[in-house]
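User: My collaborator sent over this chain with a note saying "see what the structure looks like." That's all I know about it. Can you take a look?
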Amino acid sequence: MISIDNITIICGAVVLFLAIVTPWINIFIRKPKMNDDESEDDFTFPPISVIITPHDNAAELDKNLSLFLNQDYPADFKIIVVAWKSDSDDEDVLKRYGSNPHLYATYIPDSSRYMSRKKLAVTIGVKAAKTEWVVMTDITSRPDSDQWLKNIARHCTEGNHLVVGYTRYDEETSDYRRFERLMTDFYLMRETQKDKTYRCNSTCLAFRKSDFNHEEGFRGNLKYLRGEYDFMANKYAQPMSVALANNPDAWMTEQEPTDKEWRNKHLFYMEDRKHLQHSARHRLPIAIDQTALHLNYVAIIAAAVFGVLTQRWILVAAAGLALLLTIIIRTAIAARAFRDWYTDIPSWKTIPYEISVSWHQILYRLRYKRADKNDFISHKI
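Assistant: Without extra context I'll predict from the sequence alone. Here is the result:
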């Protein structure tokens, strides 16, 4: 005969309660809002410059440069490419586009030292720009539409000083990497929409040249080899002056990262975030979401094990029901988010991917602790 005692009732109620409540403590349910299409009536598009800083990217230049040059933009725009002087392949590609009136190419010397050459290239590009508004991007990313620049520029208004774009990985990238990036982007875009911009995970960031010059560009983080978008967003974001351009016509697609690029992206961020303001504020909701996620599974496993050991089969059944509810609710929430953001990740992968995010971060943290910290800076002191 199966009996139900107070322990069974209490433990069963707790695991079922957690299974129903914790899925809603989830960034996929708090996903950011997507911008609506905006009317062009009575809007004067500003002249704008786009800075691209390739380095040994001849194939990407050949493939993507025309997508930038052929933007349907109603005002003057210039694509400023700042390449390494030693990159003859990049130079050959640029020569083929030399007659395009929207292209301006310049180079940085091989002898530049003691600062990130990427940051130096961006700085040179800003100095070459003749416009107030400047867009920083990468040649390994491509605009999804010939309306891309127009949709970014719609937010370059008098009251704004920073415009954050949205970039996704291409479909060749593994589902897990696209999942993790989408999750990260949701946190960051939501913060920007709440006027609490922390950093920029996108390869599209528009800013004012006058702000860059007044604040001396990358001053304060010149020695760090990576993190250009993060440092810019963190330094230049001011209250009520940051716009998020995440309408689909404003999207960019970044090519699949190599294993080394993916690993370095995480390791360099762990170094860079120590020098970003408001890191604790940014990481708190992530910690809460992950704690709720794992607390639910720990409670289910503990209830099931305890039920088996004490032959409380009703409690085992409650733990099984709690697991089923967790899977159904979390999968449904994620599936809706994937659909809304045109992401073709199979929803059944949600559960293992959600769990693995924290464990991947722990592994990267261990790698970072063992790494030579001089690898993250240009000043080898």
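A starting point for your reply to your collaborator: The CA atoms of residues 327 and 351 lie 7 Å apart.
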